[in-house]
Amino acid sequence: MNMYKGNLAEPLNWQKSISWLVLAVACFHAAYTSIHFPAAGLAIFGYAIGLTRLTQQSSARRAFYWGLAAGFLCYAPQLWFFFKIFSVAAIVLWLVLAFWTGLFGAIVCGGVRRWGMAKAVWLIPVVWTGVEYFRSELYYLRFSWLNVGYAVPQLFSGMGGHALGMYGAGFVVFTVAAAFNVAVMVRRFWWKLALVSVLIAWLLGTFCIRTTSVGNSDFPPASVSIVGVQLEFPQAGIIPKMLDHALAKNTNAQIFVLSEYTLTGPVPDSLKNWCREHARYLVIGGEDPAGTNNYYDTAFVVGTNGDIVFKQGKCVPIQFFHDGLPAPAQKVWNSPWGKIGFCVCYDLSYPFVTDELVRQGAQLLIVPTMDVEYWSRHQHELHTRVAPVRAEEYGIPIFRLASSGISQAVSADGKVVATAPMPGTGATLAANLTLANHPTLPVDRYIAPVCTGATALVLVVLLIQSWRGKSGQPSSDPTN
């Protein structure tokens, strides 16, 4: 039986596969230049189209290898700084990330070969979202950077981006890619009509969700003046002097912020006395001892009376680093201005961390961050993609203070209103941020886990049917 009759095109040959691979990789890197050229984010659609076309192989195994190659060529250049941190072990980490792109290709190819494009086209956005959510959130080596949603934060701004969420953005991109690819492959008018319908439904649907999910309050929201000072591994004696200098330039500042790991232990008396003397709040990163040999990487809040009024440990310590124990709990600080949540550096990259703060009513996030200057400017620039997306997802302002830049103050609509440079030891970041009245979870927080479950189910079905085929039962094998 010819599996490519009807609504399936002939499998790609080597030349065409290489062409689509080049398109996908080139568009991915073009989209990730959008930190300097926001319109370049549109190239992510080319990445999705090229990657989806690469699934058009004669077997799921071949589709896996082409997807693996695409993933490696996309991720390794963007994460070249891994080599500075992990040496040759970085190659393994790049391959781990690329594996998930290969798995996407294998599942989609297997489903299409077995059930046909018309019945299996839904797999493309569902499997992409399911795989991306799993690799970003659910297993030990979870790593959310280079997610499709981070490439196009401004593309969805004002068109339902807040309501969609980062995984929802990826779902839409791959839905459009699926419709486009089927329209080209099948050459039927109704698929082209379906593509236009998807775009219209997205624009109308997300607009409705966005306008109904964010309400207004009868009471004007509070505003708070925050100042951060970039210091990387400073000597203890210099910190009060740097705070004095920042206060002299920002006399109305109410909260001062220093980075993660500013201290190698708890807050010393010198900083408590500074807060008491100047009647200011201080957020500072340090180590909160846990037993005799470990600690929690913690954001301490020192009050105007010099006491520790709040502290929050890091929920997701960085894998393979000496980064302390995971925080046993999350809470929000009931500050004089409203509820403030804290993420310690890497925590902001994970919606499962920030979602909980929003559920508890957080109206502002403060994020002490350690980005070592040695890790390269590109690492810092990639990290700056996280805060604007997270702010827009929830409709919540974020103040992110990095040790050596690039620090950001982000308004509730995802706009960066102030930055401090990299390298920028001693540079200050100052902003007056308005706390959110009604932060909400984006809809993809409910859709993405369902996609992951559906992807796992499809994978199990394909593996069972493949095993039956190899056992001699009549079945066309999608994995050979």
Span between N and C termini?
Answer: 16 Å
Query: Looking across the biggest beta sheet, what order are the strands in?
Result: 5-4-3-2-1-12
Share in β-strands: 5-15%
Largest sheet descriptor: 6 strands, mixed
Strand segment count? 12
The chain-level mean pLDDT equals: 88
Shape: elongated
Which residue ranges are poorly predicted, with pLDDT under 50 across at least 5 consecutive positions?
Answer: 1-6, 207-217, 475-480
Q: What's this model, at a glance?
A:
The chain is α/β, with parallel strands linked by helices and 480 residues long.
Describe the fold and architecture.
With 480 residues, the protein is an alpha/beta fold. It is 48% helix and 15% strand. The radius of gyration is 24 Å and the shape is elongated. The two termini are 16 Å apart.
What descriptors fit this protein?
about 475 residues; alpha/beta; Nitrilase/N-carbamoyl-D-aminoacid amidohydrolase; 2 domains; 6-stranded mixed beta sheet; 16 helices; about 50% helix; about 15% strand; elongated; disordered C terminus
Topology:
Elements: H1 14-31, H2 44-54, H3 60-78, H4 82-86, H5 89-115, H6 117-120, H7 123-138, H8 148-151, H9 161-186, H10 189-213, E1 223-229, H11 239-249, E2 255-257, H12 269-278, E3 281-290, E4 294-302, E5 308-313, E6 333-335, E7 338-342, H13 351-359, E8 364-369, H14 377-383, H15 386-394, E9 398-402, E10 407-410, E11 416-420, E12 428-434, H16 444-470
Parallel strand pairs: 1-2, 2-3, 7-8, 8-9
Antiparallel strand pairs: 1-12, 3-4, 4-5, 6-7, 9-10, 10-11
Helix pairs in contact: 1-2, 1-3, 2-9, 3-5, 5-7, 7-9, 7-16, 9-10, 9-15, 9-16
